[in-house]
Amino acid sequence: MTLHAAAAPGRPAISKANSETRIAMPWRRIGILAAQLAILGTTLGAWQVLTGIAWFRTNTFMDPFFISRPSLVIQKLYDWTFGTQAGFLWPHLVSTVGATLLGLVIAVATGFLAGLGLSQNRTLAAIFNPFIVALNSLPRIAMVPLITMIFGLGLASKVVTAWFIVFFLIFFNAFKGGVNIEQHIINFCRTLGGSSRQIMLTVRIPNSLAWTFAALPNAVSFSLIGVVISEFVGSTTGMGYLIVTALATMNATDMFATITVLGIVGIVLVSGIGMLERRLLHWSPEFRAT
What predicted TM-score, i.e. pTM, was given to this entire model? Predict the structure, then answer.
C-alpha cells in the first residue's frame, strides 16, 4: 500500500513536466529563429546603409564596387531565378550540388567501410597507418590541379576532389567509433550468446555510425568546398565557375549573389543531414532527450 500510495502522485507530476517541456519547445524555437533573423537583418541593414554613406565609401572598404550592396544582390538573385536572366542559375547550381552529393555519398560509403573494417583488424591498421597518415597529410588544395589533369574538366574531377577531401574525415571517425567500445559491453553480449555477426550488427556498426554522423555536417561543407575549388581550377559550369567569372569581370554583385546561394545550399544540406541523423539514430540519448 505504501509503495502504491507513494508512486501514484508521482505520475501526474512527471506527465505535467513532460507536457510543459513540449509546450516550451516551440517557443524556444521561435525565440531562436527571431534572434537569427535579428542578426541577419542587422547585418544586412548596416551593410546597406554604410555603403550608401559617402565617407564610408571613400575611407573604408565599404565601397559598393568591391562589396556590392544587399539590395543589388537580392535583385541579381531575382533576375537569375525569375527575372531577366531566369534559368541562368539552375544549370550551375545543379552541377555543383549534384557533384557535391555524389562525392559525399561515395566518400561516406568508402570511408565508413574502410574505417569500420580496419577497426576490427589491428594488425592491418598498424600496417596501413603510415600510408594513411601520409595521404591525409597531403594538402588538399594542392592536389586539385593534379586531379583535374587526370580526370579532366567534367564531373569526374569534381567528384574525386570532393571524395579526396571528405574520405579521411569519415574514415577516422568510423575507425574511432569501431575501436572505442567498452570491452565489458562486448563481453556481456557474448555472455548472452551473441555471435560475432550479431555483435557487429548491434554494437559495432551503430557505434561507428554514430561517430560517422558526428562528422557529416563538416563532411557536407567540405564536399561543397571541394567541388567549388575544383570548379575554380577548370570548369565551364558550376558555382565556382560563376565566382571566377565574377572575379575576372570585377563584378562584386555576381560574386556575392553566388556566395549567398552557396551559403543557402550549405544550410539546406546540413539540415537534411541532421534530419537523417535524427531518424537513423533515434535511439541516441541526444535525440531521446529532445
Answer: 0.79
